[in-house]
Fold:
Amino acid sequence: MTHRGVLHRQNLAAIFRNIVSDGDQSPFLLVLMLCILIAAPVREMRAEDLARGRRSTPTDFEAFQGSQAAQSPPGSLQSTNDQAIPLPQIAERAEELDGQLLEISKHLDFNREKLPTQNTIRQQADEIRQRAAVPDSIIADMPAILELRDEIQYWTNLNRQYATYRRVLTSEATYLENRARFLESKQAEWQATWDQVHKLSGIGPVVERVRMELEGIRSLQLQLQRELNLMVTMQNEVSQSDRRISEALAKLNEARGRLRSRLFERDALPLWKTRELRNLKEPTAPIQQTVDREAKGIGEFVRANVLFMIAILLFYGVALVAAFNVRSYVTARSDLELPMEVVKVFARPFSVALLIALLGAIGRLDRVSSGVASILILLWLVQTLRLLPLLIGSGARSVLYALAPFLLLEIARVMMPLSALVKRELFALNMVAAFISLLFVTFPSRLRSFLTQSRTSRLFVFSGRLSMFLLAASFASNVFGFLHLSQVLGMSGLVGFLGATALYSGARVLTLVLIVFERSNWVRSLLDSRAESLERWGGLILLCGAALVWLQGMLQLFVLYDPLVQSVSRILQYPLGYGNIHFTLAGVLGIFLTIAVGYALASVFTLALRQFLISTIPLHRGMPYAISKVTYYLLMVAVVMIALTGAGLDLNKFTVLTGALGVGLGFGLQNIVNNFVSGLILLFERPIHIGDTVDVGGLVGTVQRIGARASTVVTFQGAEVIVPNSSLISNQVINWTLSSPWRRVDVAVGVAFGTDPELVLKLLVDTAMSHPGVLRARPPAAFFLGFGDSSLKFELRFWSARQETWFQLQSEVTVAVAKALREAGIEVPFPQRDLHLRSVEVSVGQSLYGGVSQAGSPARSAGSDSLSATPRTQVVSSAGKQA
Structure:
């Protein structure tokens, strides 16, 4: 009541009138009210407002919002001098008001185009009233699964559309009401200004400006009132239509629940007893009406998903260009050792691009009508017929041709406006025809060559024969009156088999794309040893994803998806535990899933960090690997913390467990901790890098990986040896390539006595210099080491630029030295030895002496392996006589 506003004064005046008119009240109340009014605080005026001669006021809309709750009805507004605008502010406030009125007018004009018109809502309401009888007739005639699904989808789409209508209309009505109240406050303000200035003389333009603002406010108020009345009327009509939609959906969902619960119950008369129920004059809807309805549904889907359709077309164009490029790349690169399926599949780039584009439409299949679904199914069948035979063999084409027409006939049967009995008989005939067709093409004699091709082809034929069994069981169930079971079995045989083949072809084509991508040189150099894992796991993940999509589609088709999801959800959310510790299976699975996804993301991030970012920064050798590895460890710790926190685990409750774990680390896990800390030391200190050639206790090999607990050393024989990190820190390790990959190679050479040493030294150096693998930065050198027992000893020393090729280089240079010595006529002598025999029989001595004499001089017999070809040897008997 102490607020100096006109609305509060009106309320205060009303209180005074009530007190005065009520004779039973004490005069004390009147005195109290007068004291409050007199003691009411007066607002202080700001200095700048005093200088300008105006009062401090909040902004227009803030004043309106602040007083909105205390406003009286529009009719009770009074124009008082308290709301009048001071003369110096009229021009400025008028410009501000014009902008606000213009903004409201633009909003109204824009919303007329955005909001649905009243005629549209009335037409849809008439259609809903006419279509409301269809669910009753469908439920009474024991609907087919596809027919019931199509009707539920129609009413579900309407429910989504009218939910949007309700939200938009409610928002617009709220906006209009707020704007109307805002204009009422503005009208009171400008009306008070008019009452103050229209009697003044000499300010005619100002008076005219005030009058124009009042007229603009009144005109926009009338327009707002009309729009508000229209919104309220449309809200009422939408509410009525929405009630009919909810009723229809409730009936259809109830019918779907009955179908699910009566799967193994006889729900119709046997087929041979239905003739007495036949009524050829049963009224049915015209075919043209059904065609128009489906065409309208297709048009509504296209209009409601314009951006989605444009995105699919653009995606198809991009995929087509990519398929042509991959075909050219595969044709040109015969060295990639790609599977034959890659060349065959990418020879049809239009089908590959169509398949990839259709993958983006899988998520919309549960929201489309039968007309749109039939178009998408037809496109899927086209690409499957063209690509699947290339993947598993040409025999698959006959099986697909045998079933595809009957699936299209089944979709047409569901969409045709026929009586329930006629539809049932057509369904039985369709199942029999599909069974005979499939039986004809799956004879062993026809598929003998196809069955021997691969395990996938045998699985395909087995699935076809299983589908044939389901078709036969569907026909038998229909004959004996199990109509719903018959529909489930029949659609499993048709939709299940063809859907599985389509999704399998899609997964295999994407796997081939992944194989081409993975075997490119760029990806091989980027992923290194992980490329094969990407190919193996990528194909497995794609096949598992295709299987899950197929399972979800089948469960949704047979109205089992929702109850199954609810059951699984209840199981996952069921609390388990003991005492104060409780958990759920969903929380546990969430932890493992978060860790798995986090592991994949951490691996990809560290790989990208090492290959793309850190590689562009000049760092010491081994530093990029160390940075990426430490980053990986930190990310994994963060992933584990996020997983535990996301599962609702309070880490403060594990203080005791953490202490026990620390004790365990100190005793039982000390070796693991030692190795882990040693691994960190290796990463930070970098005495060993990836690719270094090391000698650890006689084990020579190349370091392939430095892990958290152990490192992997690959020997030159190809063995992978796991070496604990602590051994690389605490033991003596020879690193041949720590600071340089160069390796010195030594070749020992011995020549016969009497050879010129300077000639030998020059020959050795020239031979090493002539080899292209010898490092020129450090020229080779030869040394005369002295006189040996049987030769002059020399040594050739040269350097190899690469550690991994030094042994081969040593062999090649040694061969070249032997050839140069032979061409120069320099002899490489045999060792000279004296053999003393302590005792020997006379006959043996005579035979030895005779053999040596017949063999001639030792120099002439140096090339033989017989006794006479041994090096010069003196044989002395025990008596000292030379033999």
Summary: The radius of gyration is 47 Å. The longest strand covers residues 743-751. Residues 1-11, 20-32, 34-81, 852-883 have pLDDT under 50 and may be disordered. DSSP finds 30 helices and twelve strands in the chain.
